[in-house]
Records
---
Amino acid sequence: MTTDPVPSPPATHRLFVNGGWREGGDGSYPVVNPSTEQVVGHAPEASAADVEAAVAAAREAFDSWSRTGAAERAAVLNRVADALLARNDEFVPLLQAETGATIRVASSMQVPVAAERFRRYARGALEAAVTPLAPYPVAATPLAAGGLTSAVAVRRPVGVVGCITSYNFPIVNLAGKLAPALAMGNTVVAKPAPQDPLGCLKLGEVFEDAGAPPGIFNVVTGSGAATGAALVASAEVDMISFTGSTAVGRRIAADGGHTMKRMLLELGGKGAGIVLEDADLRTAVPAIGSAWAFHSGQICTAPTRALVHESRYEEVVAGLARYAAALAVGDPLSPSTVVGPVITALHRDRIESYIAGAAAEGARLVAGGTRKEHTADSPALPGTGFYVAPTLLAEVTPGMAVAREEVFGPVVVVIPFRDEEEAVAIANATDFGLYDYVFSADTARAYALAARLRTGNVGINTAQRHPETPFGGFKQSGVGRDGGSYGLSAYSELQSLVWQS
């Protein structure tokens, strides 16, 4: 007689501080798989003392790391990339379980992308940090003698950076902050999103493998707002880099202002996909449908508002309905699944409230929107999981909440317009301005239209990204830009050096 082995209990993870590991001072909390609703592991609850210790470690490490040569900083970042790729098979199942991402997204859009970000900023560490300025003849003044005055502008590290990250792509989002910050000579205390911090904690093992100096990277976690708030409040933290909701970003900006912290805030979005009358719908429909197909719509750049010329309106609605119907919803471990769960039951309920509110305001539900559909193709444990089917709402007006506020889920609304003037007015009529899209056979027309959109990024006939562009938002979608070489500037202070010949 044989018996199945008793499964091991979920592991309790530890904080990574000053190159070592410590228990959370306030205990631990469970991290739940959004598909199975089972506990993946227990994350440490950092106490105020834990945060203080992590900040102190980063402050102590800063003096040495900031004076480390660029070539050595680049070598450390390249070793981190190598060590991360070597642990790919450990990271993928953990990241998939804690995020609920489909196996395709978890395997292709997490570890490889994060590793490439470390490599990109290994190269970035070697980019010139000095900008020479033309000599300037200055006449004598009571201040100083006259002469030919020379100067340079030099990028210097900011200091200790607190990186507070979002839940949708945990290690990718962290790598996008951590790598340029370290490349510039800063040190980092990271506070991952509470929903899925385990992969970010595991990055500590990667830094150990890479032989990184202790204290340059520290990770503290917590189930609520207290851990991040302690970072923002600390007088020893010089900068906060935050990705998340606009509501939280406002609080960080206000609280961080007390100590004049530098801020990089990448906040919410309400992307408009403007479909002009000459658009190729074979391009436009799948691009807009990416709001459903990519990580269940949990992405701030998604084109969740389809603004469609009235002559193509019904055609686009029908095309999107067919696209939604073709997307398999269910177990994220199945290779055929396109739409997995959203991150928590609370978030699922929030998304459903937007759908119900839109229907109450007069919108027409074309696809999705019922709990039965969410579990029609259930995951491994029937009836479990935080699923929202791809939802399409037509006859939406610009004033509806679902058309103005960020839903952050697989919900697309379709709004008609008569001409370009109305399209621009609708696109700009939200508090957000992160990423919009224009679809037209005339790319010069689309280019001109993009100039009128109050948004940090515009895709023309594509939902693809360019990794070297400056990324950030207008209005309440954020403050500052990162990406490519702009990321080096984001984690720098400028110092002017002046001398006289």
Note: The CA atoms of residues 118 and 421 lie 43 Å apart.
---
Amino acid sequence: MPWRGTQLVLLAFLLALLAACVAVASGLSAPIQFFGFALTPLSSGFAAMICFIAWVVTRYAATQFRDEQDAGSFKRRLIATIAAILVTSLADHFVLFWLGWVAVSLTLHRLLVFYPERPRAMLAAHKKFIFARIAETLLAAALLTLYFTYDITRISELSFIADHSVSNWVAILLVTVAAMKCAQLPVHGWLLQVVEAPTPVSALLHAGIINLGGYLLLQFSEVLTPAEGARWLLAVIAGLSMLVAASVTMTRISVKVRLAWSTVAQMALMLVEISLGFYALAALHLLAHSCYKAYAFLSAGSAVEQHERQVFAQLELPSFRALLGGAVIATVLVVAAAYLLTTQLYIAPWLAVGMALALWLASEVDYFGRRHLIRTLAISAFWLGLYLIGALLLKALLTTPVAEVYLLGIDIWVCFVLLGIASVYLWLLYRPRRALGHRLFIALNAGLYLDEWATRLSLRIWPLRLPKGEQS
């Protein structure tokens, strides 16, 4: 099938899945089940997003591999990976879901080793292969435990679980699988090194495949919600990953490597949202991150031009006075929005929104001046309102339960993580020449040397033999 035919099929699937998502979410149709698959608002919406990302990626790949001799082989591997992701997205039966999960990993591996003459790509694929086998084993153990304990074989049957005496251990297994799939510390190194794979592979990986960890927890939220121990584990792993990855991102120069570290941080933030019970917010984050990351990787070649534009526009760091003013205004806006539009007790999500809004307000006011203050406030209120509308719409569309129990400890932990990220960010920007800032920059630029430990361990478990011409 030519590239154009593949794109037409993906568009047809996209429209059909969107129609099913709207029909089921609005109550016009019950969830559609057939041959072990199920079309729910979550599954059909996620699959529709995958179709859109795949359509964009195949359009890019058709141009990049136009004159390549191995274009046919690459196309077959890419289509197989996309098909595996769609099977996993729509699967309802445990066996079908697990087989799709394994197929995604195996087909992705064939894409990652598409250029076998690149040692770093081969090493990254090797580490990914080992971690994927471990995650698949843990996922199988979780699904088998659900089957033997509660006699259920489908994801749609999770809501019938009444006794959650075993679900905490199952949730811990699922959290571990999701953390490994989302490349959380310390098994994150492979994601940083697969940037040597073709650009369409990186875009599909960061915009679609990496999100399967969050999608797994959203699908099994019935098991995760009452499991406080698993939610604590998720918050700790994702919180530390977010702190380290966001800090390291500030020190990287390579565009693709910086985007890879950004993906680790964004996935960590999404997992933190899930640990707090904000499933609709996590789904919105998943959707927005997928679209942004696909665009970022496919337009990575224009990064130099974008940097030159910033230099030409003479964009500088906002002053401390502007940061203080932006923080005050952002606090007022966020507190008002939280009071009017939500009843949730958690502070951490609003702190994250407020910090991002404060930095943007400070940059805008410092650059355009106070005469544009009203315009800046109107724009910030518009984006904040759009964000809230999106979260409320996804909350109405999703059928996942809301975590009713307020876990104060997790809320405080996430707040400390967010404040730690802000502190590192401000110190590196405004005190880079101090001794502490210099040492901190060096350590973060090396990723705190965490990947070296994971690499040594993985090679000790399963040594890798590179081609003779590529050994060093």
Note: Residues 315-447 form one domain.
---
Amino acid sequence: MSAGRKLSLGRYDFAAYLTFFAYAAGSVVVPVCLIELARELNFDLASGGMTAGGGLHFGRTVTMVVAMLLVGFVAGRWGTRRTLGTSVLLMSVGILLCALSPGYGLLFLAMLFAGLGEGVIEGLATPFVQNLHPREPGRYVNISHAFWSVGILVTVVVAGWMLAAGYSWRVLTAVVSGVGAFAALLILWPTPAGMHSAESAERADVREIWQRIRKIARSRRFWVFYGAMFLAGGGEFCLTFWSASHIQLHFGETAWGGGIGVAIFALAMVIGRLGAGYFVPQAKLRKMILIAAVFGTGVTVFLPWVTELYQFYLLLFLSGLATAPFWPSIQSHAAERLPELDETMLLILLSCAGVPGCGVFTYLMGFWGDLAGSLATAFYLVPLAYFFIFVLIGFLGKTGREVRN
């Protein structure tokens, strides 16, 4: 594919990049530091503290979902830019409170607080970029989402180095908070005259928001995209969440070896999303999604079979390339195919499919692993997810009209 129209980037684009970076870093910084953090705060994972550790992520997910359900109403009243900037600041404060927490209880509350901001970011960051670039938005959305993977990659590598060098987990967490605060400043700083405001077209009251939601929910085509987003989130998070544990349990590697696997996957995601953003025009998004689904199914089906660590690393890299375009491209393609629906609310509701997909598939993979006595066969969930993405997007594109019962 040839490169599309020359990219046009401004202050809000870089603010979006930092937002995705900080959001990803804030999502993984506590898990990456969890062993050291748990020892210091007296819920040692090796001494029965795993439930408490898992509770941190569960609490954060709950407040994220609550925030995502409410974000449409808040953004309709305050506007996309101001709501997003405030949420990034809220997330940063929550992460800073994590760094300052003297015990588990306050750490848990801080994670809940950060989750509120992260839920709004998840719902609004993509519409924010879409509003910036109404022509070929898919390219810019893919590039901005690449910085989620950059955030994971950098955090995993830097955290491993800092912890090995003897730095406190509190220092690393505070640095992540600072990055988020700077991103919030870039978004909230007043817009100069003549500069694109990055706002949605108009404000709306609660009644209008409900009308938009009902209109979206009545669209059969929306539910096809909703299912594809659920599967995309599930497949991506299975690989992100469980790869490190599988490497340690199946290949007998250290936590550092597991972290390398996650970093390889994240690096491939960066390459895939930047490549999609630069080379793939809006009109080719559906074709790219279908190719990625076929390629991803063919690659990930071999994950349970490999017996050498270098083979698993290679498959993780190829899986990352395939996985990269799903989340941003499905959202952008949906907005293009459903122009009669409110774009901001549509993208928010699609994110409300992706995030639960992450949680459900992560749980199912762990449950499958317990039943089988190994995580290896549980990786079959990933190719299943990608195969059904192909079915959903392929069927939708073939009909070219509203899908009927």
Note: The mean pLDDT is 82.
---
Amino acid sequence: MTAVQERRAAQPIASETDYGTLAARFRPLFADIAEGVVERERDHVLPYEQIDALKKAGFGAVRVPTSHGGSGASIPQLFRLLVELSAADSNVTQALRGHFAFVEDRLVAADGPDRDTWLRRFADGQLVGNAWTEIGDVPLGEANTKVSPVPGEAHFFANGTKYYSTGSIFADWIDLYSQRTDTGAFVIAAVEARQPAVTHSDDWNGFGQQTTGSGTSTYENAIVQPENIFDFSTRFKYQTAFYQLFHLATLAGIARAATDVIARRVAARTRTFSHGNAPTYAQDAQIQQVVGEVSAAAHAAEAIALHAAEPAQWAYEAAFTGSPDEEKSANIAAEIASAQGQISATALVVPATATIFDALGASGVSRDWDLDRFWRNARTVASHNPVVFKAKVVGDYEINGTEPVYVWAIGTAPSAEGDKA
């Protein structure tokens, strides 16, 4: 048996389970989550209870192999579940984005006690938040957040400030992108979230996705154990595609929920207009057309999301083949498919969530109904990774065969002088 075969044998592949059985475990929770979504959106109530219920039900371990206490779901099955969750509350899906990315990284990590420890934590319900992005004066591609060895101690200290720390306020651990002061290497530091040296703030001020628990997180001599520092160069290679798939599933779920809500509102409406086309609002052909077009957009967005998830599964499995060529091909396919999905889903869902208002009169803009949440949330999700750049990446690949950039960063642009140097 080759070394690659031994690794595959030692690490069961999370590739498929019965979706009906898997989804049946969580659908009652999704229904409960949907029950209070309008009030949470309107009153800015963070979904602590809802995320805690998902933790206890094992939702955070759906990708963990059954041999390690999880559900053994494939990547397409995970995102199919996330579409359903997003239809209930898209903010909850967004809050779990960093968790599932860290799970994915640990799934492809080298077999051994450290990996087993993390998989056991996931199976026990522990969640991971995300803290990568810095704002202000940080050069493009750099990190002001530092991880430093502590003289005379076995642990390290993490210091810095992150923004867009999505889900960290709910988490047990933080996936912290930082730089080591001793070696200069960029690393992921898994930081225990509940230590006094870590502060989380719910200060994200976007007009959408307001209850994701995103905002500022600060680290002031936060303790990090050496075994929880991972060189960023070892990060799972299809991570950018994986992160983008969350946005696709979220958009698809938003569109599905918008369709359901507007159809119910139209069906229940007793008032109609004198210049309409039918004696009842629900029988009006033009109103039916509006709802039908929104429904079609939702259907297409979900199909796009699930189709785009298939190459990511290939990339996951290719990580165990020992074939650099196959892994590269799979990673390219995953990146291009997720970018194509973002372009298409954005063009469908953002207009559809505005179109729903054509199916109602002035009552449709009532704050009591909070129907604008669908557009606000869809527009916000679609803005996270600029779609114009994704279109450029796809076009460059199709025309020139240019390999996509797998990891990108945001920061202060180089100065004109620096460009000339």
Note: The domain at 239-400 is CATH 1.20.140.10 (Butyryl-CoA Dehydrogenase, subunit A; domain 3).
